[in-house]
Amino acid sequence: MSEKPTLRTVAREAGVSVPTVSQVLRGTGRISDQTRDRVLEVVSRLRYVPDSRAAAMRSGDNREIGFVINRLQNPFNAEVIGGVVDLLEAEGYLVSVVDTRDDAARQSRQLDAFIRHGRGGLLWVPAMDTPEETYEMLAARGIPTVTFMRQVRRDLDHVGVRDAEAVATATHHLASLGHRQIAYLGGKEPTVVRNNRIAGYRRALQECGLGAGLVWASEESKIAGLEATLALRAAHPEVTGIVCNGDMVALGACLSLIRQGQIPGREVSVIGFDDIQDAAVATPPLTTMAVHPHKLGRKLAKVLLDRIREPGMPATVTEISADLILRETAGPPVAP
């Protein structure tokens, strides 16, 4: 195997100095067109790729960003990542994404690797039970950090959703349609996000005089939502409205109803949360609380860029409101 080409190799082949090659690659300096073309021809022929990590060490400007997220397979996360990557790559950054699977030990290994290999910033959905020393380590390293969805510290920038407000809106909508037995479906762990959403659900029920409600656990997947809805309907056939923790669970709930010979939005109404792309093209199209995940990802990336550019500014909290998107899975209950 031939040796990997270096800056010095390119300079030797092009008959110029190493600083000249560096200036050509950076687009700086007063270099003649002839010299620039010769250097670029050698770069292309040797398949030379600049070592961005070494360049960052020399300049102090690290252009790699880490995104530590939970459950990468969720389409909501995939759409958020798309927004993050679109904005950061346009600004000249490279984004590396890892999945903690909500495991604090796994997260610790991933963060250690990010720090060892150098990152210019961190976007982070903190895992459940993240130990205090993790926050202290990031603070000691001075890595620009923005938490996403799960706000756990007041001294870090944060981007999230007004979860309680959104679920209260969904619950009020079902109540306004005439539903009196409304369940909350989805999630299993007591995360900050799920707790806030359940609080919004219960507050809306109280405001409508509908009692304490019913919270039914489910993993965040379509299959889990299908199975959980079967169990929920068997145990509580009186339920006519379901507010879901996420669109994947809601889509599974709709499939469950269809398999039982029922039509979502008629026998049982279902409202999701996120408005992933599949929500609009589902059969029937899903009524949901939209947070526009791609735009949310771009906002997350912008907050990190602001922190990188202004490291001394006070920590900021950005929370967006969700929009109720009316489609076909929510309607008045069928008269018995």
Main attributes?
single chain, 336 residues, alpha/beta, 47% helix, elongated
3D architecture notes:
The protein has about 325 residues and is an alpha/beta fold. The chain has 13 helices and twelve strands. The strands form two sheets. It has a six-stranded parallel beta sheet, with helices on both faces. A six-stranded mixed beta sheet has the order 7-6-8-9-10-12, sandwiched between helices. Helix 1 packs across helix 2, helix 1 packs across helix 3 and helix 8 runs parallel beside helix 9. The longest helix has 17 residues. It is elongated and about 90 Å long. About 0% of the residues have low confidence.
> What is the radius of gyration?
25 Å
Mean pLDDT equals 92
**Lateral strand order in the biggest sheet:** 2-1-3-4-5-11
Poorly predicted runs:
56-60
Number of strands: 12
Helix-strand topology string: HHHHEHEHEHEEHEHEHEHEHEHEE
Determine the N-to-C terminus distance. Answer: 77 Å
Indicate the topology.
Elements: H1 7-14, H2 18-26, H3 33-46, H4 52-59, E1 64-69, H5 75-90, E2 94-99, H6 104-117, E3 121-124, H7 132-141, E4 145-148, E5 157-161, H8 163-176, E6 182-185, H9 192-208, E7 214-216, H10 222-235, E8 241-244, H11 247-259, E9 269-274, H12 277-281, E10 287-290, H13 293-309, E11 317-320, E12 323-325
Parallel strand pairs: 1-2, 1-3, 3-4, 4-5, 5-11, 6-7, 6-8, 8-9, 9-10
Antiparallel strand pairs: 10-12
